[in-house]
Amino acid sequence: MSLITPADQTKLTEAFADLTRSVTLLFFTQTLDCETCLQTRQILDELPPLSGRIAIEEVNFVLEKDKAAQYGIDRVPAIAVVYDEAGERRDSRIRFLGAPAGYEFVSLIQAVLLAGGRSSNLSAPSLAHLAAVDKPVTMQVFTTPT
Amino acid sequence: MAFASPHITAYAVEATEYPDLARRYRVTGVPKTVVNETVEILGALPEPDFVTQALSEFTMKDGN
Predict the structure, then answer these.
(1) Interface confidence (ipTM) of the complex
(2) DSSP string, A10-65
(3) What is the CATH classification number for the domain harbouring B40?
(4) Judging by DSSP bridges, how do beta strands A137-143 and B32-35 pair with one another?
(5) B32: domain range?
(6) Contact A115 B3 (CB under 8 A)
């Protein structure tokens, strides 16, 4: 049974129709000692049926340490949003730690749309401010599922 | 913001699943944003204020 209602599936399918780039959700997971990895996989599996431009790629956190390090992932479940541009894989630098349930699911959809080619919702002054950032910045936004 | 700047990486962290991180960054309410371990923003702000507070320490100063 789907976790997403038919009405929401329709809305998502319509939103994803605007994707101009292929988006891959790198899903870092492990089999043992991961309470929410299965739930995360179930949530992610809802998306590819709604768009041919969305794929899930599972990364074994235990066996593929190099890939985890490359994407700055040090715990599971975690998701890194990447996309294809000019035949190359690009990193959106957007990550999700923990199952993307509740409001996080909305954020995940926004990240997919952004990586898939939607233009930024940020104002021009904010974009100018962002263009002036010249040091490495790591932002962590803490949320809860509801 | 991460998508708009090559220098920025953004993590959405589920606080109840990672209580160790929530403790380390003294998350007493959500949303809470921690920037480079030093800047802390509790609650949601209007976008211009949020961008300014989050990034002012990491931005080229005017005239440079």
Answers:
(1) 0.93
(2) HHHHHHHTT--S-EEEEEEE-SSS-TTHHHHHHHHTTSGGG-TTEEEEEEETTT-H
(3) 3.40.30.10
(4) antiparallel
(5) 1-64
(6) yes
Q: What is the pLDDT of residue B64?
A: 41
Residues 17-46 (B) with a CB less than 8 A from some CB of A = 17-18, 21-22, 25, 27, 30-37
**Is any Cβ of chain B less than 8 angstroms from the Cβ of A5?**
no
Rounded CA separation A20/A3 (Å): 26
Tokens, residue A87: 């035949």
Task: Report the domain count for chain B.
Answer: 1
Ordered domains of chain A (ranges, CATH):
6-131 (3.40.30.10)
Candidates A97, A125, A145; nearest CB to B11: A97
First to last CA, chain A: 22
pTM of the model: 0.95
Question: Which has the closest alpha carbon to A48: A2, A99, A85?
Answer: A2
